[in-house]
Amino acid sequence: MKHSSSARNQYLATFCVNLLSITYGFACGWTSPSFPLLQSADSPLASGPITAEEGSWIGASLCVGGLFGNLISGWVSDRYGRKITACLASIPQILSWILVIVADNAYYLMAMRFLGGFSGGVCFMVIPTFISEISEDRIRGMLSSTLVFSCNFGILLIYILGSYLPYETIPWIMLPFPIVFLASFSFIPDTPFFLMRKNDFVKSENALRFFRGYCTDTQQVSNEFKQELVKLKDTFSEEKQSVPQDEITWDDLVTRHARKGFLIGICLMAFNQFCGCFAMLNYTASVFAESGSSLSANMSAIAIGTIQMVGSYFSTVLVERAGRKLLLIVSGAGIAIGMGIFAAFSYVKSAGHDVTAYNWLPLVCFSTVIFVASLGVLTLPFVVLAEIMPQKIKGLSVTVCMTMLWIFAFIAIKYFSTLFEVLGMHGTLFLFCCCSLAGTLFVAFFVPETKGKSLESIAKSLS
User: Fold this and answer.
1) What mean pLDDT is predicted for residues 166-171?
2) What is the sign, positive or negative, of the torsion defined by CA atoms of 4, 5, 11, 12?
3) Is 432:426 a contact under the CB 8 Å cutoff?
4) For residue 213, what are the contacts with CB-CB under 8 A and spacing of at least 6?
5) Are 162 and 33 in contact (CB under 8 A)?
6) DSSP annotation string for 161-172
7) Which of 284, 311, 332, 367 could potentially form a cystine with 32 if both were Cys, beta carbons 3.0 to 4.6 Å apart?
């Protein structure tokens, strides 16, 4: 009798590993409810209120940490495994919240954000790789897109807690999350592909059995499982016959597939950051305070966090139906339109015209922008990146692209307030509008559709 495989353990593993991305979401969203208090006369820091320059460095330290986390995790992931790398990422998260508890000046908070970003760099490096290597083709896109959904859940939760609970209580609530992740993820095996590369054939097959819902001693398996196991062994054999499996040559980096993968990956990372959504999310409360929205800054932030999570949820649902490319195009076009309208409102307001009757417009525009951004631009570049890169150089290529992401993010967050001062809110939003339009055109003409395709067929199409 044919025994069909089950995706239950793939969902379980995805849930467990994304506990790590939820805690990273806490670090991302912490600045929005905390900055107004930290900059006020009632600042909980012994050194007093933080300055605008200190605030910009606290915000941007996340990206510096992300850059270092990304660079280190690529090597650790390939050498010691995706599982161990993810587990190690929980340590800086624990330390970061301890720093908030003991902080008495801005430098503690810069270190806190650095450690949170370091963990985020690991998250966005190892989680897409882990999920893409354990997932069946039919659900790979959906499971991969849960990374950003989980981050958004963490951001929304910290927005809510930060609005209603004392500043000193928040880190004590955040501390248990990385510990729970460690306890749950320790029972999940590493990916079959990594174990096969390390010559551990038995563990590799057992891991594949686990992720496909078979017991270790089950004899009756589906034909699809048998074919997948053969492909796994063939991929390893081809690598072993060429050069030592951990050695990457220059020829590996200049193939047609690799060149196109690097071009698409780096451009998608730029699109992800220079559309402006991530930078604005780090200053959500401040953005609404400046825009003159009739809602309180923290309530606006909660509304935006909710919209963002709903948008990323729809992305997980639609990614295997509408496809990656269509969602990216719709998302980019929506961001450009929303930013353009928001910019027009800000320009009219700065020109001295009475816009009281339209004070609802900033919230509507920003909500729309974050919703459509979460459908594609903020979510799917990481899915596409894990799918389009050559398997042999995936660790290195994803590291390079994610390094560029953190550099772009640092530029966007560090100089966001500077752009406000130089260009004004309307000029900054219009700049983001133009970047979003350029990114949409790039996706339309250069990014291939990967929906429902195996990693092997994607590699052939790019070659």
Assistant:
1) 92
2) positive
3) no
4) 5, 6, 7, 8, 9
5) yes
6) HHHHS-TTTHHH
7) 284
Could you report the per-residue pLDDT of 62-88, keeping only the tens digit for each?
888 988 998 888 788 888 889 999 999
Helix axes 8-29, 176-185, angle to 10 degrees: 160
What 3-state class would DSSP assign to 212? coil
* Structure tokens, 117: 């970003």
Q: How many residues in the chain?
A: 463
The rounded distance, in Å, linking the Cα atoms of 171 and 94 is 10
CA distances from 371 to 161, 318, 337 (A): 22, 14, 13
State the angle between helix axes of 146-164 and 106-134 in degrees (0 to 180), rounded to the nearest 10.
150
Q: 75 near 135, Cβ under 8 Å? A: no
Count the Cβ atoms, other than its own, within 10 Å of residue 253.
Answer: 15
What is the model's pLDDT at position 334? 95
| Tokens read off for 272 | 């992800």
213 alpha-carbon distance from chain centroid: 28
> Which residue in 398, 458, 381 sits closest to 137, CA to CA?
458
Greater model confidence, 422 or 173: 173
Do the Cβ atoms of 281 and 412 come closer than 8 Å?
Answer: no
- 3-state class (DSSP) for residue 443: helix
pLDDT of residue 173: 94
HSE (side-chain half, CA atoms, 13 Å) at 71: 9
Query: Within 13 Å of residue 181, how many CA atoms lie on the same side as its CB?
Result: 28
**Tens digits of per-residue pLDDT, 326-358?**
999 999 999 999 999 989 988 898 888 888 788
